[in-house]
Design goal:
With about 375 residues, the chain is of the alpha+beta class. It has 10 helices and 20 strands.
Length: about 375
Amino acid sequence: MGDSPTRRVLVIGGGASGNALTILLRRAGIAVDLIEAKPDWNATTGSGITLQGNALRVLRELGVWERVSDSGFPFGTLGITSPDGTVLHVAEDMRTGGDELPATLGMQRPRLQQILIDAVRASGAMVRLGTTAEALEQDADGVSVRFSNGTEGRYDLVVAADGLNSATRAAIGITGKPEPTGMAIWRITAPRPEGVERTDLAYGGPAYIAGYTPTSENTLYAFVVEACRERASLDPADHADEMRRLAQEYGGAWPEISKHITDPEEVNYTWFHRLLVEGSWHRGRVVLVGDAAHCCPPTLAQGAAMSLEDASVLAELLTGGREWDDELFQRYYERRVPRVRAVVEASVQIGRWQLDDVRDADLPGLIIRTMNLVKELP
């Protein structure tokens, strides 16, 4: 089987990994249908995102780096502060995407999604929004799919890019499920105060971490990490009051940021989860990418990078002239899993040290080892 344009792939889910894979497969002449459950394609969802160099490297491969660069806020250092805002240490961020890309770029998440949406549209993929896969039936040659709108399709490959709570993962009999790590995060978008030109993290105080990241010339996203609470105890109408209560004990840019924590609908509250599907990321001709296969707390800011790398590696294998068979899909898993496991375990470990109040943990060493790993090409 060569790179014949008669091949058809269904991508389920239009997040970062699904969009990236669609763009790369279309570039190789493969027919791609992309379905996304949300009618608005998640174009307005989320506050900010921190993209490190290895994520930027994939975005450059997708041909969207220039637009990403124009929209985001690049920086090369990380500030560690006390809760009152006193800067304790400024660390150089590792350029995990190579010397020609910034070490880190903060960005508004909806802006990144829109850039990827535009690239998918330009690729010529067939996109159907507000649509899910209701049933998958596999045989030796492909997958027959029945959609929620009553139509059916036949594909050489189905890619499950439908996120943390992937219905496709469950439908093909993979039993792994995301597990809470014990932490949760409050996030909000706010105007960027003058002088905020990198991520600053305060450890301690009323929460485990309070931080902010510039996402454009005019915006930042701010976040507070605490032990997770039962959602039933949190009235969404009180989200702004709760986040502001936690934030008010922090100095630095926080007093200015806190003035904008007023609308509960602008505050996002999420539990941290961990997931790593073991053994393989496929069953027959259905393959997992991104959060459907793995997820981790954002303590290393590597979640989106791992998902984008999945798409890059899978596209490379699918367009390399090999048979689309168990051996190829297992090769994809074996290339990805050591790197992803290291990131998931390190991200969870950092949170565990905080939950357990471990004072002598080798946090810098763990971060450096993990960043050295992701600096290598995936």
